[in-house]
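Assemble and predict.
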Amino acid sequence: MPRRKSAGVMLCSALALASWDASAQAQWKLTWEAPVDCPRREDVLAAMRDIVGEAIFRATSLEADGRIRKVEEGYRLELSIANEDGPRVRSVDAKVCHDLLGASAVVLGLHVERLAAQSESGADNANDERADSASAGEQGLDLSPTSAPAAPETDPETTPSNEATNAEFASTQRERRWWLALPQGSVVVGSLPDVAWVGGAAVGWRSDAWRVWVTGRYQFPQTVAADAVPNVGVMVDKYSVELGVSHSWSNPWADVALGLSGGLDYVVAGGIGDDVAPSRARGAAAYVGGGLTFRWLVTDWLSLAAGAVGEVPLTRPSFEVASLGAIGRFNPVHLRISLGPEWNF
Amino acid sequence: MCALTTALDTPITPISRPTKKHLVLARIAMGVLWPIGSACEPPLDVGEWKCTAAPLFHPPDGSTEIPGRDTSVEPSWHSGFEDGFCGYARARGFCYSAPDATYRVVDAPARSGRKAAAFTISTDRGKDAEQTRCVREGLLPQDAYYSAWFYIPGGTTSSGNWNLMHFQSAAEDAPLEGIWDVSLMSGDDGRLVPWLRDYVGGSLIPPSWDFEVPVDRWFSLSVRLLRASTATGAAALYLDGELVVERTGIVTDAEEAWGQWYVGNLATNLDPSDSTIYVDDVSIRESLDASP
């Protein structure tokens, strides 16, 4: 590539730094599939850009297909790079999936540098093949080169065609999973005078960073003593159904999600105390809420979630004792703190 | 939301004739929106307070024995009506009213805490409403102070008996008989004067004209009763802790007799005829200073 043209590309990239990803995607076709706790496509591209430099990264085209899957003793990366004389496949094993980020970036980076060198000096590929192995060895990884031009070892049904658009490539790396939060324990602070204990479960659907869920909860009975007279109180418990949506920001071992939710409480209340002839009353009350959830991604299938949600009841019925009047009521806002495992399927 | 519900339930002239589908959709929308409406917050009725009254105590074993005969009244009892009339009921006491009179728990005025008792009567000849009171009964202490705080709205005069406290006693198998009264007498100038009346010795202690019962504020009346069947007993009346009148060396009642102590409102001729007296912090103590 002429130096003048290369300098022009660098200048444009500096001016359009915010749109770097979009312009990069215009030249790259990288299909990427990996478990949730593994490097993402963007991580690989960023690492490769660091290796080869901005100018080469933006000036080179590449088609590659990367897949990470769990194997018996760790994770295996299979990287298929389209070449003039056919696809070349690299297989890399690692005990920790995140280590495959460096390996994939090195393999792709060396390939890109080789293409860049070819365009300038026409050097042959043999030296680059040796460089591939040497560099991967420095990473402490088991990189098993497959002699080119070997046939790709990937499933032809899942390999996208070279004519596929970048959008189609992006869609292949989207992670869609069911998840189940069971059991989910909570404490509610500020709804009634004392802290309330809550048990429940949630089932949800995750698509990349977005989650939607349905939760069922039971708030264990709580006693509210009448303020005005002794020996009078009310026992309150409630059942809740909730719908929610959240967006998360994650790294390989944790994510933080900001969510909104709304639901219905079915309140059951009954008078207690020596001076009360009790009866039971039931009523529905709607609420909305919003809060944060922190997840520790223990494994691909298990997370530990801790959340804090502020909730606002839209209806706050009072508890009335005949001949005495209202002896208590839900407060206008309360905090629910929850903790529990989440199972990803 | 309540208004919306009402609107849906009220027939209106439709712009275009609603179909069954429209009505179903409207009902579904109401079902979803109903809980969201903050204007409608129907209370949850969780029970009924049992302390609005203190009915006559009936022994749980079904015995027809008069409870006062086997109930011991300890000189360490107090009721501020914070638990309504349950303070009386738990002590085997009771409250009663003439058919047209009422007694109830009120939030104001209250001398202490948040509750007091109100006793409303009428001396109107067309009504049967001359008395309503609460009663402690049983074997009364040998020596004790019986106290209560009263609040009497101003403007009422009495030209008959206006009684605030009443003591009765009964020897074994004998009927109850009145022994002491604390009543009010109206002076010509409209003042209310305390009056300790003695039925035991047959002597009538005159009203204490040097003292005046205040109106429109709380005041306490206390009676010390040293019971004796010989001439060693005593009775005394205190207004706001100050001795009004005292009788010593008297026979009160038989020491083994059981008795009743009434607190409330009874009158025979008031002007105006309707009267409400508020009562708080009723107590039976060993000493006057221990009264709340």
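Chain B touches chain A through 24 residues (CB under 8 Å).
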